Amino acid sequence: MDMQNVVVGADGATAEDVLAVARHNARVELGESALAGIAESRAVIDALAAKPEPVYGVSTGFGALAVRHISPELRAQLQRSLVRSHAAGMGPRVEREVVRGLMFLRMKTLASGRTGVRPVVAETMAALLNAGITPVVHEYGSLGCSGDLAPLAHCALVLMGEGEAEGPDGTVRPVAELLAEHGIAPVELREKEGLALINGTDGMLGMLVMACADLAALFTSADITAALSLEALLGTEKVLAPELHAIRPHPGQAASADNMLRVLAGSGLTGHHQDDAPRVQDAYSVRCAPQVAGAGRDTLAHARLVAERELAAAIDNPVVLIDGAGGGRVESNGNFHGAPVGYVLDFLAIAAADLASIAERRTDRLLDKNRSHGLPPFLADDPGVDSGLMIAQYTQAALVSEMKRLAVPASVDSIPSSAMQEDHVSMGWSAARKLRAAVDALARVIAVELFAATRALEIRTTGTELRLAPASAAVVAAVREAGVHGPGRDRFLSPDLEAACAFVRDGGLVRAAETVTGPLA
């Protein structure tokens, strides 16, 4: 969907701005404060470029080659060479939303008035976004230090009118053709501009912002499926009482417990744990659901705080500092190091993997006749003839195992580069790429639990006077309307699982529960 314009000022951007541009094709424009700041910082660069003394990024080489002073007649070639040589990515194409996010975030930094580019550079980047032209960026090429160099260089190459890009129709074509069709003139880069276009954490930050949005929705979805599983297993909702969570005051835990309690309100199934197979307590995967999901929620809150700080930052090296008297200077720094972003990307992958792990354990419990308290083996219609959801759990287990591998931190690794000048790197881009895979897998894991729990609830209540919680009933009805079939003889399961996953991803699960509960956390 198209959204209203996002106006970029000199004071950073919000997560909502990133999502609007990356995912919803919002148009962007540069505010007056941004244009004024860009012009002011460019004046500093022009003044330094006119002096005989070498200035890094303006009149020198880069990285380990910074010792060479570059004469004025070679400086345009210097910037072109920088971008061309750094556009060295390999592998599959990165998703369109990721590329749009990193382009927007780089434009946001250009608008800060700290990079020294001319206004035309930022304006051309805005024109590319508004035209729906998306540079081809590849999976491999960033070490997450000195910025996401290769991914950003592929975008800078497009500003120069070179390379390949995807047009608004989704077709990859030569950039020169696309720019000409949309009336966009290529930019001839001048002093400092090539460096300013590639020296930021924009790729990993954009993926962090999108992952935070996705995980917030999935944590709510996981609370709902945990409640459905508790209900299907005849568990007790007493462990969700607010007074129990108040004595361990983690805010995420309290939010998850409250979500579950509201979904279970009015259930005729909860509390029957003392009937046929008496239990003093439910299993950990049921009883500790708020503690695990809540810890993930608190991790997410920390990650969002880091993202907010980074969204307010101007990442470049060197950076332009404006003096009060109207002058300015250029200073080298290490703000391009991706450690702050890389750490939380890894942390979120750990939280996602553990949430998936506990959800899979609940699914397995629903399918095991020795632990499901009266449900048929594998929720099959005619066990032995039918296998029920046996292999759906295999699929879920495979996803969880993959997520455990994806939870291995990328940010603890470092491979020196640039002749040992860049001798410690963050690997933040790699952390972001694997988190995207983990978020995708988590949605699938939750979908399998939803599939199993809704089937178990229908089996449990068929032919009895026991009634589902109104919110649970609303979810069951909605998921069936979404094309996920209920109990019965064995059928081709893959379409049901994919429909359940789509139901989770598009927010259908949360919306269905909220028709009864009201807004959930």
Automatic annotation (TrEMBL):
Record's catalysed reaction(s): L-histidine = trans-urocanate + NH4(+)
Chief place of localization: cytoplasm
Keywords (A to Z) from UniProt: Cytoplasm, Histidine metabolism, Lyase
Cell compartment(s), UniProt: Cytoplasm
CDD domains: PAL-HAL (cd00332)
Single GO MF annotation: phenylalanine ammonia-lyase activity
Cross-link (5-imidazolinone (Ala-Gly)): C145-G147
Family classification: Belongs to the PAL/histidase family.
HAMAP family: His_ammonia_lyase
Protein name: Histidine ammonia-lyase
Species per Swiss-Prot/TrEMBL record: Actinacidiphila rubida
